[in-house]
Design goal:
Length: 147
């Protein structure tokens, strides 16, 4: 019974934290010679600094300085800069696929409405992920996909 109570409290805490978290807050992890920055919006990698041959850090990820620009980008040209890709990656022709003899149809969002790209109309790249834990060497994101 104590385990069930702890589980319920943990789930409720995750929901409250998810509702109160800032999807554009930056989380940076690092190790000698490298550091990476992520935001919960799309569980997105926004910066990856590695040392060049002279030992100077260089950002090697294409992206924006202002995290809000990722949201603006997704609302306009949607270039998929640094996010988690899902529920699936790449294009699904005609938004239709068959697994074990069962044909499924999913929303088309690419190629003028003929194909499905990277998770459909609102893929994982446009979701606000929950930060489960974060410290100087690790950040863990979670997303409950309800359909």
């Amino acid at each position: 019974m104590l385990f069930l109570y702890a589980l319920i409290v943990s789930v409720l805490a995750l929901r409250v934290f998810a509702q109160n978290s800032n999807p554009l807050q930056k989380y940076t992890i690092s190790a000698p010679g490298i550091n990476a920055t992520f935001i919960p919006y799309g569980a997105r990698l926004t910066n990856l600094y590695v040392n060049d041959k002279n030992g100077d850090p260089q950002d090697v990820v294409l992206g924006f300085d202002d995290a809000a620009d990722y949201v603006r980008n997704d609302e306009t040209v949607h270039t998929y800069l640094g996010p988690i890709v899902g529920r699936y990656a790449n294009r699904i022709r005609n938004g239709t696929f068959t697994v074990q003899g069962v044909t499924s149809h999913i929303p088309e969002n690419d190629n003028m409405g003929h194909d499905t790209l990277h998770g459909g109309k609102v893929g994982y790249d446009q979701r606000n992920w929950t930060v489960v834990s974060a410290n100087s060497t690790s950040v863990t994101f979670s997303l409950l996909d309800q359909g």
